[in-house]
Amino acid sequence: MATENLTENFFQQLKKVLDDYKNQLSSMRTNRANAGLVEDIQIEYYGTKAALKTLALVTVNQPNIILIQPFDPSSIDSVIKAVQLSPLGVNPAREGNLIRITLPSLTEERRIELTKFVSQREEEFRVIIKKEREGAMEKLEEAFKNKEMSEDDKFKKKETMQKAVEGANKSIEEWSENKKNEILSL
Length: 186
Prior knowledge:
Layout: H1 3-26, E1 42-45, E2 48-51, H2 52-55, E3 56-62, E4 65-70, H3 76-85, E5 93-95, E6 98-102, H4 108-145, H5 151-184
Helix pairs in contact: 1-4, 1-5, 4-5
């Protein structure tokens, strides 16, 4: 295995982990409506499951209202059913070819629960990043032992990976703090 691929694969995995975390945060409920809350809900459509974002236009009309306009009007009932069964806990209303979701305000208790959940997810993703780093470091050591790279190269790559991990952890921390502030704000 080429040593360049080791670091390249590590950076790709790190980017994937960060993207996953960002997507999870964007789909988390806050006081404001967000298309990300419903985009990935799986809809039963002609015998297969598909993400809502592939079957409908999702827009935010007002701070607490999400509008869904299915491309195929015959799928409206399936969309309504899937939204009702989702963990959002909302009851969508049909208005012609549109579906309106009105999000109720979060209670103080629920806000605190959500901030704790964000903290838990933050820690889980930090652990995932740590495991990715450890796996990449082991591969570097193996490549060094197999004389596929010099000791200087090994240390340079380790340093580069560590800086990337620190940057990723900083990004996760910033995103988490922003999400917590968003949840707690009225």
